[in-house]
Amino acid sequence: MDSRPRSFYLLTAFFALFLIFLYGPTLTIAILSFQGPGGGLTFPMRGVSLHWFRDLFQEQAVGDIWGAFRRSFVLGVMVMMTTVVVSLMGGLAFRKRFAGSTALFYLIITALVIPSILVSLGVGLIWSQSGLPVHWATSGFGAQLTWALPFGLLIMFAVFNRFDSVYEEAARDLGASSWQVIRHVVLPIIAPSLIGVALFGFTLSYDEFARTLLTSGSYNTLPLEIFGMTTNVTTPVLFALGTLTTVFSLLIILVFLLSAWILSRRRARRGSDAGRGDL
């Protein structure tokens, strides 16, 4: 006899509805992207084919899909690398208390609660009033950093808050310099966390819309290009684009997770080999 309380089934049903609400739109777009050549933007489907995926790789009447994709990819890599470096340096700096550290911490977190469109407007105004060209690689890059950097710093703060300094002290006792301690002790231990920061930096940049809206200049990133296409494209090619970008995002996440798993295996293997050496 099933002794589970009724609340268990209610919570299960609620969680199932939540998953449908969360992933239902993405699955719907993925299904509709496989419409036949005569298909439209709604159900019922008119045949099943890869027609709209093939059409996506042909020249479009409106928009610059692949140019926008390249810009988003390059911008995502730029934000990712900057976020990793600055977050690591910030995490190391905040390990010791210094004058104004608390105020600086809250100032960093404040960037997360300011409406994104206001940040985009402010950065765009600063660039234009300074006589600088508003461009996705400059003003757009700066606006996206205000979104990605706080997340990276929060991760590093949490990592170093739990970091055991015994490993560093042991390395110093063995004659290691400060740089050698960071390179050979600290970085290998926190490498999986740095991969997480890199993943945050890239994905937050890759699909950022609001903070890029007024800072990208005359060249769209992929989210802006997709938004523009919604007012012009009336075929499932838009759904095919959404499906491919979703698959690309999942592949990026898979690559980062695989990298973290490989690093953790290597660290475990080194620890095992060191233990055998001591024996």
Automatic annotation (TrEMBL):
- Asked if the Swiss-Prot or TrEMBL record annotates the protein with the keyword Cell membrane, the reply is yes
Question: Which residue spans traverse the membrane?
Answer: 73-92, 104-127, 147-164, 185-206, 237-263
The Gene Ontology biological process terms listed for this entry are: transmembrane transport
* Residue ranges annotated for the ABC transmembrane type-1 domain, each copy included: 69-256
> Sorted alphabetically, which keywords does the UniProt record give?
Cell membrane, Membrane, Transmembrane, Transmembrane helix, Transport
InterPro entries in UniProt: Bact_Polyamine_Transport, MetI-like, MetI-like_sf
Instruction: Give the bilayer topology.
Output: Multi-pass membrane protein
Protein location:
Cell membrane
User: Pfam families in the record, alphabetically?
Assistant: BPD_transp_1
The terms describing its cellular component in GO are: plasma membrane
**Source superkingdom:** Bacteria
Gene3D superfamilies found in the cross-reference section:
MetI-like (1.10.3720.10)
Please state which protein family the record places this protein in: Belongs to the binding-protein-dependent transport system permease family. CysTW subfamily.
Q: What is this protein called?
A: Inner membrane ABC transporter permease protein YdcV
Gene from which this protein is expressed = ydcV_1
